[in-house]
Amino acid sequence: MQQMKAAPEIMSETSIKPASVWDYANPTRFLGLVDRILPAFVMLTIVSMAIGLWMAFSAPEDYQQGATVLIMFLHVPAAWLAMMVYTIMSVSALGTLVWRHPLADVSLRAAAPLGAAFTFLALITGSLWGKPMWGTWWVWDARLTSVLVLFIIYMGLIALSKAIEEPSVAARALAIITLVGFINIPIIKFSVDWWNTLHQPASVSRFDRPAMDVAFLYPLLVMALAYTLLFFTLHLMGMRNEILRRRIRSMKMQTARQAEGS
Known about the structure:
single chain
């Protein structure tokens, strides 16, 4: 009877527990995960981007915008990703300050350049789209100005991460500034509702049905998926590079201390 009771205890100790976010706090285990899933992300990104571009260029011309509507398939997903990436950075900032997750600062640092790139793409394509539609490359309305502020915040965070060499000090400073800057995200999202701007209101994320024909909606959603997969692919690569960079820095410091002690 004792053996029959002991068996479940042994099974519970040796069984594999479900993976959680804390199981990958170990950088070595996380790097192993990245090596396993990264090829799938790369393949999905390539396939979805190819399908999205094919659907976009196969879409009909808009009755008002003509062929200029094609810029939408590059501009709108870039604008969505600019806000999504900063939201992910804000969650990573909470992970640094509240939960002390070892990889939270790694995630924040790896995401910042990608968020800046998506924001820059949104600004450039928005100007190219605005010139034939509005007759000007730029207007200082609420939506455009708040996106420009987001780009400046991104660049400031990147500069700060390069300026502070001590990782622990930089991590706390980056996390605090990131959370403060998050107030700009709802301003970007609701600026067209709060103020009178040239920028059109939301056409997809609405409480009722999207105010967009399916001929444009489906390619737009596929391109948004492709952009999202592209971000996560590059984000995983960036986190891997950041971990390796920190390991190299640690090895150099250890070698320097040993040289001083000898």
